[in-house]
Amino acid sequence: MVAPQHDLLTRESRNMIMQLAGIEKLVGEEEFAFERDGYRWHLPIDVGHGFTHAAPGTSKQQQKLDQDESEKVYSEIQEWLKTGPLA
Fold first, then answer.
1. How high is the mean pLDDT of the chain?
2. Integer Cα distance of 15 and 12 in angstroms
3. Per-residue confidence (pLDDT) for residue 15, from 0 to 100
4. Torsion of CA 51, 84, 25, 31, to 10 degrees
5. Stretch 29-42: mean pLDDT, rounded?
6. Segments of 1-87 assigned E as strands
């Protein structure tokens, strides 16, 4: 599950993945990323809702940051699927 840091639903997404993975409390770096029992959590930093798509009114600088983070996240997901659940 991926939820951007500056999204209104990040908290709900985090709670859902914690329940699915049977985690009561995230410790340290787990707040940003973890993998447990076939579940994976990733919290991209400094991006908001829709960071995978350029929203109207978004600055060129933010669009570049969002695009870079999107490519990174998609690459990580693809690799994880190939070596994990879909291997």
1. 83
2. 5
3. 92
4. -30
5. 88
6. 33-36, 39-42
Is the CB of residue 4 less than 8 Å from the CB of residue 51? yes
Residue 36 three-state SS: strand
Q: CB–CB of 48/40 below 8 Å?
A: no
- Of how many residues is the chain composed? 87
Q: pLDDT band for position 51 (50/70/90)? A: low
Within a 13 Å sphere around the CA of 47, how many CA atoms are in the beta-carbon half? 25
Q: Please enumerate in sequence order all residues whose Cβ is within 8 A of that of 4, keeping only pairs 6 or more positions apart, or say none.
A: 10, 43, 44, 47, 48, 49, 51
Q: Is the dihedral of CA 30, 38, 75, 59 positive or negative?
A: negative
Tell me the whole-structure pTM to 2 decimals. Answer: 0.70
